[in-house]
Amino acid sequence: MKQSGQLIDKLEAESHLTKEEWIWLISDRSPETAEYLFEKSRYWQQKYYGNKVYTRGLIEFTNYCRNDCYYCGIRRSNRAARRYRLTKDQILECCHQGYELGFRTFVLQGGEDSRFSQEMLEDIVSTMKQNWPDCAVTLSLGERTYESYLGLYQAGADRYLLRHETAQEAHYKKLHPPELSLEHRKKCLFQLKEIGYQTGTGFMVGSPGQTPEQLAEDMLFIRELEPHMVGIGPFVPHHDTPFAREQGGTVELTLFLTGLLRVMMPKLLLPATTSLGTIDPRGREKGIQAGANVVMPNLSPVSVRKKYDLYDNKICTGEEAAECRGCLERRMKSIGYELVTDRGDFPGDL
C-alpha cells in the first residue's frame, strides 16, 4: 500500500506517471489502495462539480454499421442483429420528450451507417440546434474525414465521442479487423480537438487479452490527448460475436481506473456507464462514488432499444425515457448526489 499510495500522491501532484509506474499501480492495487484513491477522486469531483451529476440523453438512431469489430453486437457480419434506422422526425421527437424531462444534452449515437449522408446528418444537427438552442449536441458516429467532422461542427455539433478502445497497437489488432487501425483512430481524435469539439475518448476494461501494460498505454495516451471526456466501462461479451465465450471485465478494476482518471485530470467529464450498471445492480452508483459525474439515460424509442445490442443483458431497454430519468434521479439521491438540468459543459481550460 505504501508505494501505491505514494504513486497516487505523485499522480495528484504532477498529473503524470511513467509507464512503469502505471503498471505497478494497476497491478498492485488493493482494497486499501482503492479506498485511499477514492477519497482523492471524490475530493476533486466535489471541487469542480460538487454533488452534481449531469445527464446526457442518448438517442441510438441506427444500428447498421459497416465495421466488423470483434466485440460488438451490431458488427456488420452479425446476421442475427435486427436492424433499424430512426427517421429525422423520430430523432426530433426523442429530443422533444427529452427536453420536457430536463435533458440539456442530446447524444446522437449510431453505427457507421453510410445511408445517413453528410447532408442528412448536418440537417439533423442544425435542426436540433435551431429547435433547442440551449442544448448541447454530442455526436458518436465513429471515424469520419476531417471535412465531415468540420461540416458537422459548423452545423452546430458541440461534442464528439470516439473511444479509442485500446492504445496498444497489437491489442487493437486483436479486437478489430485489419481495415481498422489505431493510428487512424488516434488521428481522428486529434482532428476533433483541433476543430474545436469538446472531445471524448475511452476504452473497454477487461477486454480480451488486456494486460496492465496495455492499460498503462491507455492512461499515457489519454494524458497526451487531453480530452474533455473519458468513457470507460467493463467489457461485456455478446453472444453473436467471436468473443462470446471470453471473460468479461470487472466492476472493481473499472472503478479503480475511474478514480485514477479523476485524480490525473480532475476536470474530466466521466460517465458512470450503462455497462457498469449491467454487470452490477448498483454499478452506476459505485461509478459516481469512484469519481464519475455523468450518466447517460436512453431517450431512444422503446421499440428499438433492444435492437441496439452492443453487448448482452443491457439494462433499461424496456423503460420509457421518463422512467429512466426518474430511476436515475432516485439512485443518485440515495448516495447524496443530485441529477441536474444543465448542459454540463467542461469547465474552463484543460
Explained architecture:
- By secondary structure, this protein is of the alpha/beta class.
- The chain has one domain (2-340): TIM Barrel (Alpha-Beta Barrel), CATH 3.20.20.70.
- The chain is 45% helix and 12% strand.
- The protein contains 14 helices and nine strands.
- The longest helix has 19 residues, at 31-49.
For the structure shown, list the relevant keywords.
TIM Barrel, 12% strand, globular, six-stranded parallel beta sheet, 45% helix, alpha/beta, 350 residues, three-stranded parallel beta sheet, single chain
Main pleated sheet: 6 strands, parallel
Count of all domains: 1
Percent of residues in β-strands: 5-15%
Strand order of the largest sheet: 2-3-4-5-6-7
- Rg from C-alpha positions? 19 Å
Topology:
Layout: H1 2-14, H2 19-27, H3 31-49, E1 52-55, E2 57-62, H4 88-100, E3 105-110, H5 118-131, E4 136-140, H6 146-154, E5 159-161, H7 169-175, H8 182-195, E6 198-205, H9 212-225, E7 229-234, H10 251-264, H11 274-279, H12 283-289, E8 294-295, H13 302-305, H14 321-334, E9 338-340
Brief overview, please?
This protein has 350 residues and is α/β, with parallel strands linked by helices.
